[in-house]
Design brief:
Blueprint lengths: L4 H13 L3 E2 L7 E7 L2 E7 L5 E3 L2 H12 L13 H13 L16 E5 L14 E5 H7 L4 H21 L1
Antiparallel strand pairs: 1-2, 2-3, 3-4, 5-6
The chain binds zinc ion.
Zinc ion binds next to strand 6 and helix 4.
Length: 166
């Protein structure tokens, strides 16, 4: 099973939406390391691009992600760090996609977007984060920050035009 970087990025966004926390990788074979209620699991990719899992939790989470199911990961009643960040971002930016401006809903849930991506040295500080709908999150992929801002301007402009013609 070969897996794309974009899909892993979506998986991490999904896991964070479930209350998991993406933590730094520790070697070149790891592609995702997620802290969850039962500990930490890891997804690995081998030299042939195949995916493997640290344990059954990782396997179950991946299966739930593929099936679009919920797999709640935070056990504490206290809000997870990620949930707290999502709440702060919703307060800062409103309840809509940072890029296209579409409102979030159950059918259009937010994903966490790192404006400067982690692979490029970005961090989890709130100033580097935004909430994006999944289609936009996928579209911006590994763009640099300047291209992401351009993408946002284009999305917003085409929305304005639609509003005017409507
Ligand atoms: Zn969007």
């Amino acid at each position: 099973m070969s897996v794309s970087e974009a899909k892993i990025k979506r998986f991490i966004g999904w896991a964070e939406g479930q209350g998991g926390e993406s933590v730094p990788l520790t070697n070149e074979y790891e592609i995702a390391r997620i802290k969850h209620k039962g500990g930490t699991f890891v997804l690995y990719v081998n030299k042939k691009g195949g995916l493997s899992f640290s344990d059954s939790a990782a396997r179950r989470a991946w299966a739930a992600f593929l099936e679009g199911k919920a797999w709640p990961m935070n056990v504490r009643h206290k809000r997870s760090k990620t949930e707290a960040k999502v709440a702060r971002l919703r307060e800062r930016d409103g309840d809509a996609c940072f890029f296209c401006g579409d409102p979030f809903s159950l059918q259009n849930p937010p994903t966490l977007e790192h404006l400067l991506s982690i692979v490029h040295g970005g961090s989890n500080v709130i100033a580097n984060l935004a909430l994006a709908c999944e289609p936009c999150n996928q579209e911006v992929g590994s763009m640099d920050v300047a291209d992401k801002i351009k993408f946002r301007d284009q999305k917003r402009r085409s929305h304005d035009q639609l509003d005017r013609t409507a």
